[in-house]
Design goal:
The protein is of the alpha+beta class. It contains 14 helices and twelve strands. Helix 4 packs antiparallel against helix 5 (about 120-135) and helix 12 (about 255-275) runs antiparallel to helix 13.
Length: about 375
Amino acid sequence: MTRRIIHVDMDAFYASVEQRDRPDLKGRPVAVGGRPDSRGVVAAASYEARTFGVRSAIPMSRAVRLCPDLVIISPNFHKYRAVSQQVFEIFRSVTPLVEGLSLDEAYLDVTANAWNEPLGMTVARRIKSLIKDTTGLTASAGVAPNKFLAKIASAWRKPDGLTVIAPERVETFLQQLPVDALWGVGPVTAARLRERGIDKLTDVRAADPALLHAAVGNLADWLQRLAAGQDDRPVSPNRPAKSSSSECTYAEDLTDLNRIRDEILDMAREVADWLVRRDLLARTVTIKVRYDDFTTITRSHSAAATRDADDILRRALALLDKTEAGQRPVRLLGAGVHNLVGLVDLDDEAERWPLFQNAAKLSE
């Protein structure tokens, strides 16, 4: 049986909640986050603000330069969590198979649903309507046979969009996608693939396995399956992400320490970007080194939860210094983050602000 998966993503969630609660903000460019005079960073931007180039994770000082009329609102996480609970109650009234990705984003498997509705498009439309009636907010939804395609579809026509990728349309849809659309491919990995002439999903399919493996390591097989539209991952309720990592096996062993450090920095930057995209923080940074004789070692360091790229990069390099990289040939390198926590799950308000402020460094 073909699955019917829906990915629902609330539109500019924090900013939209503030515009809902303050009618004077409707139609105006709004950013939720810290003050521009204290290294504040944008946590969320309304669509009116986005037309000026304001987006999440950029320094608020830059946002104000881009949009002098920007209205800055301090975040209220308790309010956002309460609205999120309303939204997720709607999801769970339709199906028990709800996998939350953040406060404002989730996968739903509606192959079987409380309404006995056979069309995923109709289920998605009803969910969007219930969200609007209950919260006054809009959401965008993507409907597809699997999670990978549903997530891409939900972003296709934002805000308040609904995009359906029927099984018979999957191939046509895939042929127009760039390599960046693949799950797990961030800017660093995308650049690495493009250096090898792999620019689109169709290129990933046709790539020589050895070439692809040299570029992305153990991700190669997984990316080729995604590029073919294959994704068998189930919708897993109450299963938050526990870690993320990036690694690469090299066609020729690495012996130059500067090259090794650059590779670790690229991987650490990639997982830091991953944390920002998912509104997550990590308490543990790890690296992995496999020498030419296949001896594999890992090193890790735990500290306060962070998603600050500079902090993660600094810790990854410190861990590399505890290995024999540069003294022994290296055939594989990896960097990762573990012990993840959501930003909104931090109870100490004072703990949140430095994290927002440090995120500005990602865009400086």
